[in-house]
Amino acid sequence: MRTLGLRLLALSTLSAATLSLTTVGASALTPSPDRGTTCVEPGESAAARGGRETDHRDISAAEQERIAARTQRLLARQDTPLPAAVAAAGAIVPVYVHVMAAKNGAGDVTDTQIAQQVQVLNTTFAGGESAAAADTGFTFTLAGTDRFFNDTWHRDGSSTKYRKATRQGGADALNIWLVDFSYLGVATFPWDYARNPGIDGIRVQYSSLPGGTAANYDLGETATHEAGHWFGLYHTFQGGCTATNDEVSDTAAQGSPTNGCPEGRDSCTLPGLDPIHNYMDYSYDTCYDQFSAGQSTRTAQMWAAYRA
Ligand SMILES: [Ca+2]
Ligand SMILES: [Ca+2]
Ligand SMILES: [Zn+2]
C-alpha cells in the first residue's frame, strides 16, 4: 500500500497501448481500458512489485509441466556441463546495460549507479545478505553500457524493436534495459531464448537502481528478482498454494504474493511460513535477503539446459 502512490502515478501516465508492449508473447495480457484508474487496489499485494499483471509471460500449470519435462530431456542429453559443475565453477555472466533515457535526460542514471547495481547482483547471487542465503555460483561483470535518448523507448514503447536493435551477446549475456514504465521489472525466461533471442533479458524501472527514487524498491533488488526469472526461477507464489508451486522444494509454498515485510506471514496451509525474504517473492528490497539452496540448484540446471 505504501507503494500505491508510485504505482498509480506511473500507471496514470501510461497509455494502454504502451502497456500492451510490456509482455512477451502473452496473449492473455491484453490491456484493459480502465487500468489507468483502477489497476491498483489497496491491499492487493500483487500490485507492489509486478503491477497488476505478472512480470513475465503467463505460465499455466500445463505449460509449467511441459517446460519442466523439456528441461529434464535437455539435461539428460548433455554430457557437460553438469549443473553441479556449473555452480562450483561459478559462471561469469556478462552484463550489458542499456540506459533508455528520455530526451530531457530523465532516466539517465549514472555510471556509479550502474556499477552499484552490478555489485548488488553480485552480492545477492553470492548469498551475501543472509547466513541462510545460498551462493548460486554466478557472478556478474559489466560488459558494456549504452545510452539512448528516445522518449518512446524510455517509456518502454516499441520494446520488441528497441530490444532487438540494442541487445548484445549470446544466451549467457544478461541484457538490462532501464526504462520508465508501470512495472518495477519484466523478464524473459531462459526456455524462450531459442525461439526469440533478440528480446532476451530484463527490463527494469530505472528508479529502482541503488540511489534511485522508487520508495521501498530502491536498493537494486528488482534487478535481482528479474534476473532470477532470467535464470529460470519462478515466483515463490507461482501456481499458488500447491505442491508443485515454484518447483523448488525448500521454498515453502505460497498462496499469494507478499507486500512489505510481514514476519510470520502464512498464506498457504502447506508446511512452512511464506518465504517473504526470498528474492522471488514481492517483498520490499529491505526485506529481501536470499535465494534458497534449491533455487541455486535450479539456476545451475537452467543455465546448463538453456544458457551455457
Ligand atoms: Ca517451493
Ligand atoms: Ca504455509
Ligand atoms: Zn517476478
From TrEMBL:
Annotated family: Belongs to the peptidase M43B family.
One BP term from GO: proteolysis
Keywords, ordered alphabetically: Disulfide bond, Hydrolase, Metal-binding, Metalloprotease, Protease, Signal, Zinc
Organism: Nocardioides psychrotolerans
Molecular-function GO terms, alphabetical: metal ion binding; metallopeptidase activity
Pfam families the record matches: Peptidase_M43 (PF05572)
Protein name: Pregnancy-associated plasma protein-A
Residues of the signal peptide: 1-28
Stretches the record annotates as Disordered: 30-55
Keyword Zinc on entry: yes
Domain Peptidase M43 pregnancy-associated plasma-A, chain residue ranges per copy: 213-301
